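Hello,

Our lab assistant flagged a job as stuck in the queue for most of the afternoon. It eventually completed. Since we weren't sure the result was trustworthy after the delay, we are filing this so someone can double-check. Below is the sequence as submitted and the structure that was eventually returned. Let us know if re-running is recommended.
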Amino acid sequence: MVKNKYILGIDVGGTNIKFGLVDSRYKLVESSQIPTPKTEKAVINLLIKIIEGKKPVIKAVGIGLPGPIDLKRGIILRTPHLPIKNVPILNLIKRHINKPLKIDNDANLFTLAEATVGAGKKYKNVVGITLGTGIGGGIVINKKIYHGRNNAGEVGHQFIDSHTSKHLESFLKVNNFKRSAEDYVKLEMLADKKNKKAIKFWNDYGQILGYACLNIINILDPEVIILGGKQTKAFKYFYPSLQQTIKKGSFLPPTKIIKSKLVDKAGIIGAALLFKN
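-- returned structure --
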């Protein structure tokens, strides 16, 4: 490898930390993943270790982090999926490296990657939704992340039920989904076998996700909504009820709802794209 040739992209999730080298054409040339540690100190130390291991061949580092971030100060404000709160992560890591370093919300970076080099590259107005350990979202307009004041795009925290004050993430996290305590992998496999309970699960899942997409469509009117994350493996099972819900509730022209093209690579590539232009 040529020295200082790549950008190191790191995608920090509640379950795994994915990282890889991205070249000047924003192609992922190698990648790995490690289970996310359970303590704040261990997470920070692992990020530093990953960066130090790639120092000889990198020119910059981009990191995607779950939850709201104070971008100006480089602080993770809070996240239910990492043991980190009010931590100046940018400064903590900068002490150990002398490379350009940028951070952003992980779902923003998923959306940026899909909007720039993935499934949404031919569209100007793109919304991304990540369906994983939590439910994340991002807004990209003309290939730029829209941050609002600081943290626009937190679609997982839109309220769906006024009676219980539950937000989307509370409904769609599989372990909290009242109709089943089984995990989504088993539910997908059961749906493949025409299991009625599993099929109902995904129909209900699609309906609730459809309400969330409906809110986004009626407020932002994007050209496309791109779905990513582990649960999109069951896309064919929840997509029909999702679309039906949208058609019933929207008075705007249809917005395309499509799957991620980059899949597991999106967060890593999006982190590298922080250095585009």
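-- support follow-up --
The delay was a queue issue, not a problem with the job. The result is valid. Residues 174-181 have pLDDT under 50 and may be disordered. The longest helix spans residues 196-220.
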